[in-house]
Amino acid sequence: MNWHAVKRQLNGWAILSFLAILLIVLPGVVVLVELFAPVNENWQHIQEYLLPRYVRNTLFIMLATGLLTTVIGTSLAWFVTVYDFPFRRFFKWALILPLAIPPYIGAYTYHGILNYTGVIQTTLRNQFGITVDQSYFNIMSIQGTVFIFTLFLYPYIYTITRAFLHNQSSSMIENARILGRGSWDIFFTVVIPISRVAIIGGVSLVLMEVLNDYGVVKYFGIQTFSTAIFSTWFGMKDTSSALKLAGTLMILVIAILTMERLVRGRKQFSYASTKVKPLKPRPLQGWHRYAVFAYVSIVFAIAFVIPFTQLTAWTFLTFDTVFTEEFWQLVWNTVRVAFIATVIILLFALIIANYTRLFPSNMTRVISKVTTLGYSIPGAAIAIAVITLFLWLDDKVLDMAKALDLSQTFVFRTTLIMLIFAYVIRFLAIGYNSIESGFEKVGKSFTEASRMLGWNTVQTFFRVDIPMIKGAIMSAFILVFIDIMKELPLTLFLQPFNFSTLATQAFKYVSDEKIHEAALASIVIVLMSGLLIFVSHKVLDKEAD
User: Is the model more confident about 197 or about 52?
Assistant: First the structure.
């Protein structure tokens, strides 16, 4: 790249993009620097006796969850896209609804359903006189953890794979049928290979969510990296060892992402004809029709209907005691902080995406990759990195205040700034990916025409670019808002004093064994998320049309 090209790219968009990237990179630098710092006795003990267990449990949960979610998500996407069966149009979007239930809410809900005083065992004892072995219903285990993650994370794979199959040319499947291939043969020899990129992309999202989780493993008492980081941080009061655990976890994430790239490989599937038409559902006949309907219905019932019904029943039991003025404050806190963080994320995403679109180069490609790294970093690692960074910043501010003889100073650690900063790092990738895809659809021709007519880049950005990608912006806003509203680890450990959200309040109730009292906050999260997921589904369908 020559000097004139560099000078052309060093404009306001570039400066704003570099500042945004710097904010994302700083916490990661804090973690990696501490990873190579001298070790203490706590870290030696963790490394020798505890770290193998953390790695073993984490890897088992990831591998088992990844396998099961792949089977369920891919099969559901195949059935809903390729075949026509009763209530297919309803299940097409309803199978996404389990995403509205955060895994930690699903965990305590199913524990409440299956334990000794739960509805299942109570009904067996009182109605049928049957007393069962408690081990049969013990969900608070590593196998139960996999069960919970599978139920509430499979929609990631289902959504991505269904969208991919829906947009594929039907000619490949039709040609396979003409050649005499059966449905199962077509699924394994045609659909799976061409959908590999979409499936792997969904699995990577599932694995990132598993690594980010704190609520499920904490409530079930499973020792993983997330629980280890926070127990070392708060239990041992050892920030250095906690940062080393966070750094180890980041190395594990990098290894997973590298393996994803290797597994995905260089294979690509494209159309040989410009006449591309989506798959047309094929009516099922006989027992196949009802077998598929039963399978889809059972998954939907276990993943959404049953936990939602139980939460609703518990809500009615404790509504009068929980629904107070303080509860309205929780709702306001949740909406306010999610809205502020989402707006900031969308501003950063618009700036970076627009800059990388207008000035394509190796440098902007690196910027786009770095922008999406935050979502790959688990919340536990981000939380401890951010608080370490802000503690250092507060110390510098206090030192400066003493030098200037200032009696009052602004301390960052007691404000929402730290929490919102962590949200921006964690969820910028979601907003960026949605807006980048919107820019890719509209291209640059309208932008270039606007510039030729005399408008500068800022005028073109607000008057041409934004109106053309408003659907992508709305979709990004909804997706980011939902994820922030459900977020637990970052909110739980970075929220200021006397500040709680619906997610943290529900988790506190559950930690105090007040499961019924946690239902109202949980059901509000589920209802708000479900409504926004439905709106997002309609927006994406409209964009696809």
Answer: 52
pLDDT in tens, 78-126: 888 888 888 888 998 899 899 889 999 999 999 999 888 888 888 888 8
Q: Compute the distance between CA of residue 12 and CA of residue 248 in angstroms, rounded to an integer.
A: 37
Query: Cβ contacts of residue 9 below 8 Å, gap of 6+?
Result: 359, 361, 363, 364
Q: Over 146-195, what HEC string results? A: HHHHHHHHHHHHHHHHHHHHHCCCCHHHHHHHHCCCCHHHHHHHHHHHHC
- CA–CA separation, 9 vs 364, rounded Å? 10
Task: Report the distance separating Cα 433 and Cα 355, nearest Å.
Answer: 14
Name 84's bridge partners: 283
Contact of 357 with 432, CB cutoff 8 Å: no
Please state, in angstroms and rounded to a whole number, the distance separating the CA atoms of residues 323 and 300: 29
- Res. 429: pLDDT tops 90: no
Residues 6+ apart with CB under 8 A from 146: 60, 61, 64, 65, 68
Structure token digits, residue 116:
């000794």
- State yes or no: pLDDT of 527 exceeds 80: yes
Cβ partners under 8 Å of residue 32, min gap 6: 247, 250
Distance CA 252, CA 249 (A): 5
Confidence (pTM): 0.84
Amino acid at position 504, single letter: T
How many helices and strands (H and E) does the chain possess? 28, 2
